[in-house]
Amino acid sequence: MFQTKLDRWLRENLVYEHHIKVVSLPEKLPRGVKVSEITSPNYQYLLIAKKKQVAERLIAQLTHAGSVFSTKIAEGSHWYNPLINNKKKSFTFRIFWWAVALVIAYILYIQISIFLESEFFFKAKQDLIELLGK
Q1: Range of the domain at 124
Q2: Same domain, 125 and 77
Q3: What are the transmembrane regions (predicted)?
Q4: In 10 A of CB 45, how many CB atoms?
Q5: Same domain, 71 and 26
Q6: Closest CA to 33 of 20, 16, 14
Q7: Domain-located, residue 3
Q8: Which helix (H) or strand (E) holds 127?
């Protein structure tokens, strides 16, 4: 399915996380980075940055310090991932069609309520009652 720019932006900013494995922690970490220890033969720490800009700052800092690191972009575990990160359906188009369906349902509701209050409906109802009553 076609993915819009909004779909890609939502996926990049809300779904994906930047996982950076390092041997040793840098002196100062940028704001928004979570640290966890891992059991890996090559790396000791996993740094998780949810935003791309934070990850780029951290990578620049690690490169400048000459640290050994490995990067990976992974899908985070959020409750809204199936809504936003559906490979077969565009989130933007689903929202658009839901909005169109709601507008059409509202217009139909207004038209039916106007029809139910009309004199034509009142007379047709009275005629039907008389027809069925005899």
Answers
A1: 91-133
A2: no
A3: 95-116
A4: 17
A5: yes
A6: 20
A7: no
A8: helix 119-133
